[in-house]
Amino acid sequence: MGVDLLGAAAMEADAALDRLGSSESGLLPEEATRRLAAVGPNAVISHGARPLQVLWRQLRNPLLILLAAAAIVSVLVGEHADAGIILVIVCLSVGLGFVNEYRSEKAVEELHSSIRHTAVTTWGGRPPPST
Questions:
Q1: What pTM value is reported for the model?
Q2: Scanning 21, 95, 110, 127, which has its CA 20 to 30 A from the CA of 80?
């Protein structure tokens, strides 16, 4: 029954409505109520910027893991200066990446909160009942 956004955009209107099990007059009220109960409201939800998730994404970067392993190997073979340099590079990379990604997520969150989240719909040719 479902269709992705790009697929729907490439279809003729009648084909998209048919694929979604709808019509120009909208869903029948019973079907709309059933779908609302089954999948919940059709709402865009922002996940919010979470610092620990951003930090975790920075720390699981494969290149940084490789550099951390190189620092450990450097310590084991007695190259403490090399290990220190590598760890400084890792810390700077994680720090800068964290700041940039967190600021980007906060900007997206602000943009999301400034957009209008309403749409005009019909159920069986009439506006849906107020919820």
A1: 0.56
A2: 95
Cα(97)–Cα(58) distance, integer angstroms: 7
Q: Which residues pair with 123 in a beta bridge?
A: 27, 126
Q: Rounded to whole angstroms, how far apart are CA atoms 104 and 97?
A: 10
SS3 20: coil
Output b/e per residue, 14-28; b: 16+ Cβ within 10 A: eeebeeeebeeebbe
The per-residue pLDDT for range 3-59, each reduced to its tens digit, is 787 887 888 888 888 888 888 888 888 888 898 899 888 776 667 778 999 999 999
Within a 13 Å sphere around the CA of 76, how many CA atoms are in the beta-carbon half? 6
Q: For residue range 115-131, list pLDDT tens digits in order.
A: 776 777 777 777 777 65
